[in-house]
Amino acid sequence: MFNPPPAPKTPLGYRRLLAPNAGVRVSPLCLGGMSLGSKWADFTGKITKEAAFELLDAFVEAGGNFIDTANLYHFGESEEWIGEWMEQRGNRDRLVIATKYSGFNDGEQKDVNSMGNAGKSMHLGVRESLKRLRTSYIDVFYVHFWDYSTPVDEIMRGLHRHVLSGEILYPAVSDTPAWIVVQANAFARQHGYSPFVLYQGLWNVSVRDVEREVLPMLRKEGMGFAPWGVIGQGKFMSKQQLEERKASNEPIRGGEQSEKDVRVSEVLAEIGDELGASVTAVALAWAFRKMPYVFPIIGGRKVEHLKDNIKSLEITLTDAHVAKLEEVNPFDFGFPYDFFGRDPHLMGETTNRVMKASDPIQWVQDVRSIEAQRQ
């Protein structure tokens, strides 16, 4: 008789489909590898290999299986450390490993053809990442960023060749305009190639630009979303956390808090006090509340930070909480959305104004009202 598996130790162990068009299952939080290495210490902070392995162990012990890195991070050292850790633990096939090309594939040598999106850069990227990760395949392989020069068909043909070879399983794309992703996926489908199934980009309560074009595109394309910077790149902090940071002289990644960061942090702290959660846990809960198939990338160098982030999976924000957060920094969707409204079927909004052809008089009145406001 079949016995169901035991309940996971934490909510991190509950697997979710990566995307509507991808059957692989991953943990709801993705552990980022940007801080795992020693060559970018001035940028990401210092961490030893032993401490990195401890963090990776804690992530897996809590139920995590989704890990993100890139060939660019610490000039390849992040991949090397993760590869060595997987080899020592013998857990490669139980993990979903994401990495990226477009950055330098040759460490710090920086040859012009070892970067960008071209086929040669991709070939070198796959080859070198496989070596550093000590594996025969990459689960999720990203185009790291758009280079404005490589043709879309060259990228999609190259990715599909690696899919057919078994070296990568799921093509993905990061930090790229939505219209290019749509063009790439259309080309892939027309030719029987593998389309992108996952997108990675900057998104948090303060920086919501992806909501204009990217998030609607992801829903239409059946793609998942792995946002980075959800906790404000270290800038979302309570007053106590900020005082502790200043007392320790520990630098804030990305610079000091702006006035907007301070205001957002205050509201995050207010909601956190109500729910018994930290500022960062509330910031992550906001992302889960807003978007399906979302897998925030969490960084950090300490196990206690990881445990705090996992608490975001135990709280649920109400509509009032979300509204309170977003009122701090209202987002301007701009034209044409402020003219014809936004699609409520895509964004899940019930209060959104949408022009209705069945009510032409109201339609004209709305248009005139908007035009009058612009005068």
Task: List descriptors.
single chain, 375 residues, TIM Barrel, 2 domains, eight-stranded parallel beta sheet, two-stranded antiparallel sheet, 10 strands, 43% helix, NADP_OxRdtase_dom, NAD(P)_OxRdtase_dom_sf
Shape-level CATH architecture of the largest domain: Alpha-Beta Barrel
Tell me the name of the CATH homologous superfamily of the largest domain: NADP-dependent oxidoreductase domain
Number of strands: 10
Structural class estimated from helices and strands: alpha/beta
What portion of residues belong to β-strands?
5-15%
Query: How many domains, as an integer?
Result: 2
Query: Would you tell me which CATH topology of the largest domain applies?
Result: TIM Barrel
Q: How many H/I helices?
A: 15
> Whole-number average pLDDT?
89
Question: What shape does the CA trace take?
Answer: globular
Largest sheet: 8 strands, parallel
Order of helices and strands: EEEHHEHEHEHEHEHEHHHEHHHHH
CATH class of the largest domain: Alpha Beta
Rg calc = 22 Å
Distance between the termini: 73 Å
* Strand order, sheet with most strands: 9-8-7-6-5-4-3-10
Low-confidence stretches: 348-364
The percentage helix is 40-55%
What can you tell me about this protein's structure?
- It is a single chain.
- With 375 residues, the protein is of the alpha/beta class.
- The chain folds into 2 domains: 11-324, TIM Barrel, CATH 3.20.20.100; 332-374, no CATH class.
- It has helices at residues 41-44, 49-61, 77-89, 119-133, 152-165, 178-190, 214-221, 239-248, 259-275, 279-290, 303-310, 319-328, 337-340, 344-347, 360-374, and strands at residues 16-19, 22-26, 30-32, 66-68, 96-101, 138-143, 168-174, 198-200, 224-225, 297-298.
- It has an 8-stranded parallel beta sheet, covered by helices on one side. Strands 1-2 form a two-stranded antiparallel ribbon.
- The longest helix is centred in the C-terminal third of the chain and has 17 residues, at 259-275.
- The chain is globular.
